[in-house]
Amino acid sequence: MKGGISNLMKQAQKIQSNFQKAQEELAHLEITGEAGGGMVKIVMTGRHDVRRVEIDPELMKEDKEMLEDLIAAAVNDAVRKVERTSQDKLANMAGGLGLPEGFKLPF
C-alpha cells in the first residue's frame, strides 16, 4: 500500500509539471482570429492578450459600425481558437492518464 501511495504522488507531481509546461507553451502561442474574409485579423496569445490588430485599409472607407462589428467578430474568433487549442493541448497531455471521458483539467 505504501508503494502505491508513493507512486501516486510521483504521478501527481509529473502531471502538475506537465500541466505547468503546457500552460507556459500556451502563453507564448500566437493565434490569429479573422473576420470579413480576412479583412480584420486579431493576433492573440494563449493567455488571451491581443498582440496585433490588422485592418485592411479598404475597411477604413466603410461605416464605423461595420468595422466595429468585424473587429468584435475577429476577437471572438481568436478567443474560440485559443480555447480550442488549449483544450486540445490539455486533452493530449491527459490522454495517458486514463481519465474518464469529459473529465476536465485543471481539476
UniProtKB/TrEMBL annotation:
GO CC terms of this entry: bacterial nucleoid; cytosol
Family of this protein: Belongs to the YbaB/EbfC family.
Domain of life: Bacteria
Coiled coil ranges: 5-32
Protein name from the UniProt record: Nucleoid-associated protein THII_2827
Compartment(s): Cytoplasm, Nucleoid
Self-association and partners: Homodimer.
Main localisation: cytoplasm
Keyword annotations of the record: Coiled coil, Cytoplasm, DNA-binding
Protein purpose: Binds to DNA and alters its conformation. May be involved in regulation of gene expression, nucleoid organization and DNA protection.
A GO MF label: DNA binding
